[in-house]
Amino acid sequence: MSQIRNTLKKVGINTFFFLLIGMIVLAKFFPSLGTSNGPLPLKEITAVGISVIFFFYGVKLSPQKLKEGLRNWKLHVLIQTTTFLIFPIVILLLYQVFGNDENYFWLGTFYLAALPSTVSSSVVMVSIAKGNLPAAIFNASISSMVGIFITPIWMDVMLPDTAVSFDLTETFIKLSLQVLFPVIIGLFLHSRLISFVNTHAKTLKNFDQGIILLIIFTAFAESFAEKMFEGHSATSIVGLGALMLLLFILMALAMWGLSRVLKFSREDTITVIFCGSKKSLVQGAVMGRVMFPDPVIFGLILLPLMIYHALQLMAGSALAQRLAIGEEKQGVEV
User: In the chain, where are the structural domains located?
Assistant: First the structure.
């Protein structure tokens, strides 16, 4: 039991996980604190915080490691294709058959499908399962930067059929100013500031999580204030959770199948499974804050991503642990 608890803690099922739930509860009972007319300038605080997060993310990137990572190109192409092409197409096809333009949960599901892969938990799970760790770090880093451009393009394809307004040019400008430029500046200052980042890693992590919690709180506060969740029963939320779990399992199996077809090694297959099936709550929250200016709708759009995030941590950690045990006892391929 203690081993499982430690594994869950490593991949994010810890205090922060429960604080995320707490932010939704707080928004439910005190929505006025997080609205645009609230007593605190939370919108301005989160805007500045987002830029700071991505500045230090840029500092953490190593130019040398990024160059070295280009060698295993087949692995990288598969992971990025899965993240930004296969994943969205699967949801888009399902949407065409079962979708409902008036149901923002569908839009939120497509949004999570168009997002880049998560960085920290993907790398941790690849490490636990004894996969190709350098490739995981490279792909998670590249995915985060590519997503700044690809995710808005996908949403521009999807949003004209919905009631949500979306200006692709304006979104690119905002994301460039608030996300891309801070990353580039941080990357150029890598050698000068990396020691500072390593020294204050825990403080910076707490800052990142604090900004994400503010984004979650304000998004759900606006939605609750406008009663956007009325008509969505607990059963529908549980059903959404079941679909998100099924989606994770489906994508993980697809990654395994594609890796077998391409005859990847066990280590590379593990990297494909975790980097190709996971989605970033951090980037989903901060990019969504820019792309969906209506905070009332944003809360609904964010819910599928939050559920998927929690489930990918739980299911992914169990899978990583199983793969690690299988390697130690049997020494067989995935």
Answer: 2-321
